Amino acid sequence: MRLSFGFVALGLVMLALPSPGASQSVISQADSAARRLMARRDELNALAQILDSVAEAPSTGVGDRNAARPLAARIRARLEAGDFQAGDRVVVRAPTGVGDTFATTNAPARTAGDLGIADTFPVQFGPALVLPSIGEIPLHGVLRSELEDQVTRYVSRLVRDPEVHARALMRLSVQGEVAKPGYYSVLPESPLADLVIAAGGYTTNAKVGDSHIQRGDAKILEKEKLRLLMAQGTTLDAAGIRPGDELVVPKKKNTDVLEGFRLAAVLLGIPLTVYALTHLHN
User: Fold this and answer.
1) Does residue 150 belong to any structural domain of this protein?
2) What are phi and psi of 52, to 5 degrees?
3) Which domain holds residue 45?
4) pTM for this predicted structure
């Protein structure tokens, strides 16, 4: 049985708390883990329990205690409200031929393809997802990691044993020296390098080594660290990428042209220098 990150971390935290400075490290790690887009409910519940333990531990300082409690509250608020807001986009696929009859007694035969669920759909106010032939699927309190189960539950009311695939997209920007700069809706589970692929790849003028992930005015990933994450196949979610972040690929400086100008300046300066020296001695 696979243990979740949260429960493994909980055991480690209980061992680490007595050591000086442990609570601050735990709070930082819990904050990063709680921000993961695809975090599961059991993981988030465990993180909230970890933070409760930190806040109640005698060795925890006042500052760390005041940081742990609000973070635990934010995690529980996420669990209560869910991850979805109006305007988010979701990919839903129900392949034709899967679950080919209604679940109701004596219902007529119908294929999953007839349901018309093979597209990208916006999340409506509620929040809710509205699918053709299925109707409204409430998303309040639903995490991204729970989306597929929630959609399957509602499709199962009409189709017996459906094979449903549902994923929430995240909207990111790719700018600079790529073939097709712009905004892209991608899966959080996609490798970080897929952003470049989605944008058509690098141009010949791309200074790949100086690429960076921008969030507002801050660079959150850049240079060697970004290159290593891409090379390792790290997912967008695991890399800490969030909706609205931007991958920026700068342009190479045209060093050849600059060197050419410098050389020309030197060559042009030689006759002038000779002329000046000649006249100084006359």
Assistant:
1) yes
2) -60, -40
3) 5-81
4) 0.75
